[in-house]
Amino acid sequence: MRNVRRYYEGGYYFFTVTSYRRQPFFATQTFMAALRNAIRATMKTHPFEIEAWVVLPDHMHCVWIVHDEDIPIRWRKIKSLTTKALKEFTNASATHKNSTARHRRGNGALWHHSYWEHTIRNDREYELYILYCCYNPVKHGYVENARLWPYSTLNTFLASGKYPADWADINPTWLDDVFGSHEQ
């Protein structure tokens, strides 16, 4: 992300990150293991708190609490470490037309080169974006109940009490009014 100005040093952020050309690479055990390791390594050098995270086959959403303005460094490190752990994507970059530039950026053939970021400004947005993350697999038609999606913070954070217990059986269709519906 070039020439991005953040008006806040730290805060709550919602992110959407996609795979290269929206290919369905993400929601696998192998990818998830590499992603978790990359997140842990990044958190050691550039700490942040995870409020919500969901990984779908071609994109992911998350809400973080960050206490500085070094968000691009975090995403660059997460993407690079994940790509390096998944050798098939590092090597596959050589088959793409712009492989040299993609490889230099550490994206390989796994990641779209940028991400979408939104600063969360109030409690209502905070709750809506967390719900959006948790219920995105339902919105896209992957499951009928968000608790059935394995690549989400929903069940872990429900069990720990971080999310309210009444979120377990929420009907997410009202989120379509706020964020728009998704037709497959």
Task: Describe the protein's architecture and organization.
The chain is α+β, with helices and mostly antiparallel strands. The protein has one domain: Alpha-Beta Plaits, CATH 3.30.70. 41% of the residues lie in helices and 15% in strands. Strands 2-3-1-4 form a 4-stranded antiparallel beta sheet, with helices on one face. Strand 2 and strand 3 form a beta hairpin. The chain is globular and about 40 Å long. The protein starts with 10 loop residues before the first strand and ends in a 5-residue tail after the last helix. The relative contact order is 0.17. The mean pLDDT is 84. One of its GO terms (molecular function) is sequence-specific DNA binding. Pfam families: Y1_Tnp (PF01797). This is Transposase.
Summarize this structure as a short list of keywords or feature phrases.
184 residues; alpha+beta; Alpha-Beta Plaits; 7 helices; Transposase_17; sequence-specific DNA binding
In short:
GO terms for molecular function: sequence-specific DNA binding; transposase activity. The chain is α+β, with helices and mostly antiparallel strands and 184 residues long. 41% of the residues lie in helices and 15% in strands.
Mean pLDDT: 84
What percent of residues adopt helix (DSSP H or I)? Answer: 40-55%
Intertermini distance: 29 Å
Write down the CATH topology: Alpha-Beta Plaits
Looking at this structure, what is the CATH superfamily? Transposase IS200-like
Report strand order across the widest sheet: 2-3-1-4
What structural category characterises the helix and strand content? alpha+beta
- Output the helix-strand order: EHEEHHHEHHH
The number of distinct β-strands equals 4
Q: Number of helix segments?
A: 7
Q: Return the domain count.
A: 1
* Secondary-structure arrangement, i.e. CATH architecture: 2-Layer Sandwich
Detail the poorly predicted runs.
none
Overall radius of gyration: 17 Å
**What's the CATH C level?**
Alpha Beta
Shape: globular
